[in-house]
Specification:
With 138 residues, the chain is mainly alpha-helical. The protein is built from five helices and four strands; from the N terminus they run H-E-H-E-E-H-H-H-E.
Length: 138
């Protein structure tokens, strides 16, 4: 909500003083890569946690989750800590990601996708010009 207030204040200040907000250019493919990375990360995270052995029925015997639980139990003197790594992953395995976790995972996925795109692909000449000074999107 506070972000909305700041946005409204910024826009009203820009329009009341007669100044215009600067326009900027972004590549269309960059937006697609970031959005795709965000979606893939949010979908893949619970699947990966389940594949490790953190399931709704509990931790699967002989899985990576069982090994992780054993390792953390050895560190903590025979028990796993409430709210620790194993408990958090088991919670994700049972109920999935919370809204905050989805936002964090999506942000990370978008960042990784952007970095991958920047590293593996050359920039194209295709641009999307987004202007916030009252002109239409190009």
């Amino acid at each position: 909500m506070l972000h909305l207030v700041y946005t409204v204040l910024l826009l009203s200040a820009a329009f009341n003083t007669g100044s215009s907000l600067p326009s900027f250019e972004i590549e269309c493919s960059t937006v697609a890569w970031a959005a795709g990375g965000a979606v893939i990360a949010v979908v893949a995270a619970p699947i990966a946690v389940g594949a490790l052995g953190f399931t709704a029925a509990g931790i699967s015997a002989g899985s990576g989750a069982a090994g992780l639980m054993s390792a953390f139990a050895g560190i903590n003197g025979g028990a796993t800590a409430a709210g620790g790594v194993v408990a958090t992953l088991q919670s994700i395995g049972v109920i999935g990601l919370t809204a905050g976790a989805k936002a964090a995972v999506a942000s990370t996925g978008a960042s990784v996708a952007y970095l991958a795109k920047s590293y593996f692909l050359e920039s194209s000449d295709e641009k999307c010009v987004i202007k916030f000074n009252g002109r239409a999107f190009v």
